[in-house]
Specification:
Layout: H1 3-24, E1 32-38, H2 43-56, E2 60-66, H3 69-77, E3 83-86, H4 92-102, E4 109-121, E5 128-130, H5 131-137, E6 145-147, H6 153-161, E7 172-173, H7 177-183, E8 191-195, H8 205-211, E9 214-216, E10 218-221, E11 224-226, H9 230-234, E12 241-248, H10 255-264, H11 266-274, E13 278-279
Length: 290
């Protein structure tokens, strides 16, 4: 074999090898690993959706990692995470920073209606709490409300609803929603603040046990009482209804965007409903026959 033929053969092999590597590394939604960051408040629904995705795409491996909402968002901006679950409305400055760092248009993928709920021990005679009580209580030195942590999605959302900064509110903390529920009976005059998804699964044994320990308070607003049930969340009448959404920093159709699409399809939305939350993209339809 002369030198010219050897050189030509080497070039062809190099090109074919490069094409093969390029093909192997091309984006794929149905295989590969992905870590999803979520606040503890949305952990249950996020894990249920991740399990559903892995059943449909067995070559994927999704890991759900809990992280406070603000910290998860920062990890996304810094490229330490590919996808996060969010609930709070981002400020114009935060949206601008997201678009600058990620180099993508801010397009939140909304997938569920959840709620921040106010709970008391199941032995309490209290049935409801007013918006006025909530606002005054969070300014009181008595620290009448107990949250599951600082920088938590629940604290962020309540502060945003009251047009306050979390640092301007006065409250107590018992870290972790489940710990808060377990220990709330030690503080009979306090009100716990948690996410509905903490125990929203209707037939889950652990969820039932947690629900039985507390009483969910209705919220009074403008003379009306509202509950965090399907109707209250679907019509956004319950004052502390919040919309859960995904944010990703993936510009192609890789596993993160594949997971987002799955979560927003009918199958994903059925999983949301089984979690006891209100699906964002499908609603119960009633047809009257005449």
């Amino acid at each position: 074999m002369n030198n010219s033929l050897k050189i030509a053969l080497i070039i062809v092999i190099t090109i074919l090898s490069g094409c093969s590597k390029k093909k192997e590394s091309s984006p794929s939604y149905n295989k590969g690993d992905l870590t999803i960051l979520t606040d503890e408040s949305f952990q249950s629904v996020t894990e249920a959706l991740a399990d559903g995705y892995m059943i449909n795409y067995p070559e994927t491996k999704l890991k759900v990692e809990t992280k406070k909402e603000d910290l998860g968002f920062l990890d996304l901006l810094n490229g330490k995470a590919r996808i996060v679950v969010m609930s709070k409305e981002l400020s114009p400055d935060e949206i601008k920073e997201y678009e600058k760092q990620v180099e993508l248009k801010f397009l939140p993928a909304k997938f569920a209606a959840d709620a921040v709920i106010f709970v008391v021990p199941n032995t309490s005679s209290k049935e409801s709490v007013s918006m006025d009580e909530i606002e005054k209580g969070l300014q009181s030195e008595e620290k009448e409300f107990i949250f599951d942590g600082t920088n938590s999605s629940n604290l962020n959302f309540v502060a945003q609803k009251l047009h306050k900064q979390p640092k301007d509110l006065k409250f107590s903390v018992i870290p972790g929603s489940k710990n808060l529920i377990e220990e709330l009976n030690k503080y009979p005059n306090k009100i716990g603040v948690i996410g509905l998804n903490t125990f929203s699964r209707p037939y889950d044994k652990a969820s039932i046990e947690l629900r039985n320990k507390v009483k969910i308070l209705k919220v009074e607003s403008k003379g009306q009482l509202y509950a965090p049930d399907y109707s209250g969340m679907r019509e956004m009448k319950y004052p502390f209804t919040r919309i859960l959404y995904f944010l990703a920093n993936e510009g192609n159709f890789n596993i993160a965007n594949g997971f987002i699409r799955f979560s927003c399809t009918q199958l994903g939305q059925m999983i949301v409903q089984k979690e006891g939350l209100q699906p964002y993209n499908i609603y119960k339809r009633e047809v009257q026959m005449r």
